[in-house]
Design goal:
mainly alpha
Length: about 220
C-alpha cells in the first residue's frame, strides 16, 4: 500500500509554492513574471500578447522601464497591419543601421510619413531619429495622431501644463479627446515632456481602436 506523508513544514510548503508559480502563471496565459494579477495594465498586455505584438519568450515585461522610441514605432507599425512593403537596403536615418532589429519598422514608418526624423530632416544627408532614446508623452501623442488619423474633437478640458502654441499642444489635446492620453486627476497635468514607461505605452496604444471620446473614457 502506498502512503503519502503530509507536508507540515512551512518552509517546505513555501518551496513547493515557489516551484509551482511559473507553471501557474503560464497556465493563466501571462508569461511575464513581473506582472502581478490585477495590474492596471494587465489586460492591455494580454491583448497585445494574443495579437502577437509582444514576445512571450521574454521572462519579464519591465512595465516601469522607459519606453524606447524604437519600441513605440514597432508597435505603431504592428497595429497598422505590420510591414507591408519591401524594406530598402539602405537606411533613411543616420542612427539606424540595416542590421538593427528596428530597421524595417522605421523604414515603414518613414514611408508612411509618420516618422520624419529630428526637425523633420528626412531626406537630408544626416537625419537622426534617436531609436534608443526614451519616448516622451508628447511624442507618443503626436505619433499616434499621425499614424491613426485622429482628429481634434474639442471636447476634453485643457491641461494646465499643455500650453498653447507648443508643437505638441494639439496632439496632446487630440489624444485626450479620444481617451488615449489621460492627465493626473488631482492636478489636471499631463506631463508632456516626461518619458513614457512601457506600461503607459501599452495602455495608450490599447486605447487607440476603442473609439472612445471624452468624457466617456
Amino acid at each position: 500500500m502506498l502512503r503519502f506523508a503530509l507536508v507540515s513544514s512551512p518552509r517546505v510548503i513555501f518551496l513547493i509554492i515557489a516551484l509551482l508559480l511559473p507553471f501557474l502563471s503560464s497556465a493563466e496565459g501571462m508569461p511575464f513574471s513581473d506582472i502581478p494579477p490585477g495590474a492596471w495594465y494587465e489586460s492591455a498586455v494580454e491583448l497585445f500578447l494574443n495579437e502577437g505584438y509582444l514576445d512571450p519568450a521574454q521572462p519579464r515585461f519591465r512595465g516601469s522601464e522607459k519606453a524606447l522610441r524604437a519600441e513605440f514605432v514597432k508597435l505603431i507599425i504592428e497595429l497598422n497591419g505590420g510591414i507591408l512593403t519591401d524594406t530598402p537596403a539602405q537606411s533613411s536615418f543616420s542612427d539606424v543601421s540595416p542590421g538593427d532589429w528596428f530597421f524595417p519598422y522605421f523604414e515603414e514608418a518613414a514611408r508612411e510619413g509618420w516618422v520624419k526624423g529630428d526637425g523633420e530632416c528626412l531626406g537630408t544627408r544626416a537625419c537622426g531619429v534617436r531609436p534608443r532614446a526614451a519616448m516622451t508623452r508628447a511624442e507618443a501623442a503626436a505619433l499616434i495622431r499621425r499614424a491613426f488619423g485622429k482628429k481634434p474633437l474639442g471636447v476634453s478640458p485643457a491641461f494646465k501644463d499643455n500650453p498653447l502654441g507648443s508643437w505638441f499642444t494639439d496632439a496632446v489635446q487630440t489624444a485626450a479627446d479620444h481617451c488615449i492620453l489621460r492627465g493626473d486627476d488631482a492636478s489636471r497635468n499631463v506631463r508632456p515632456g516626461d518619458a513614457l514607461n512601457r506600461a503607459e505605452m501599452i495602455m495608450m496604444l490599447s486605447r487607440v481602436d476603442k473609439n472612445k471620446r471624452y468624457p466617456g473614457c
